[in-house]
Amino acid sequence: LNEMQWRGLLHQQTEGLTDALTKGVVSGYCGFDPTASSLHVGSLVPVMGLVHLQRHGHRPVFLAGGGTGLIGDPSGKSAERPLLSPDEIAANTTTIRSQLERFVDTSGTNAAIIDDNAKWLEKLGAIQFMREVGKHFTVSYMMQKESVKARLESGVSYTEFSYMLLQAYDYLKLNELYGVTLQLGGSDQWGNITAGIELIRRSKGVQAHALTLPLITTATGSKFGKTEEGAVWLDPQRTSPYRFYQFWINTDDRDVGQMLRFFTLLDRTQIEALDLATKERPEAREAHRTLAREVTGRVHGADAVKAAEEVSQLLFGKGDPRALSLDALRLLAVEIPTFALAKRTGIGMLDVIDAVSSGKDALFKSKSEAKRAVEQGGLYLNGARAADGATIGADALLHGAYILVRKGARTDGLVRVGA
Fold it and tell me: How far apart are CA 184 and CA 362, in angstroms?
């Protein structure tokens, strides 16, 4: 709790949690509903809460909501969620499970557990649910919860109204299966979590606890994790490692210290040193680069960090194309217009011009415009000024397969040679 406090991750807790955490190993869980095919950066707040729980000797339990995802949580929503099909939920659950596994240790005495509530919710009959869960809650109790109160005027279906009871049942089942006595979640989850505490107390006579984490707002007042392109996803197919890295690099100076506390495992001394560096040498952006490396490395791996940094240096005019790794070139192909060229040998300047002057992402409006650029010395291939009539040998291709084309003062396109 002290760790969570200085990092700014502690929003609310139940009375007695401090004593519970000091008496022995506590199993704590957080649920993640698979309403999308990937988690996004906002999901990392409760994930990091479970990471810190494990680092201090306790056992984290990640619960994929394969069952509750079929219903939809009304918390923080002004309208009913569209229902996804069981197949969509199952596919999303598989992806999210693999993303969660990157953050914790699944071996050792306090090994993390990753489970799916579809295992018990899909078997739960209506009569059993009414008898074992519904009888413990009055309608007035449920109406007092903020997630329901906020939706009374616009309307809330019985489906979403019942969500808190399903989440409460999850807490009860995890208590039975793994001895879970702590649930973590965002501050908007307090009502749902305390419903689970109440169900465990009434059904088992066991004291359970809640710990909520803050919902992040940035210094500009914008919603954290949103860009002009939309949400920032952990799935590299939805948000490329380069764009993911750039999201953290572009953190507002006023927010970077908070983000280091929330999303990295750097200690207090290291973060305070970076705070000072931001204040004294803001142009160096040391804290931003550290933040981007730490989070991108955790989510996508060290190779992705290296590739993202190479691409960043190149696109901002400081990199040597010939030094790019193959991973960086593949990443670059997602970020800039990329053209196919079937020939592998005897590639002439006209071949390159043909490739980059056709298609919707063409670098030039016409072949004649491209030829003029060559004549005027304004076209570069792999960092060298292109010469009219030049031939590009196989040994000049980047990693035997790429030609980086720069028009004027900036990098514009990539030609992929061969199949």
Answer: 50
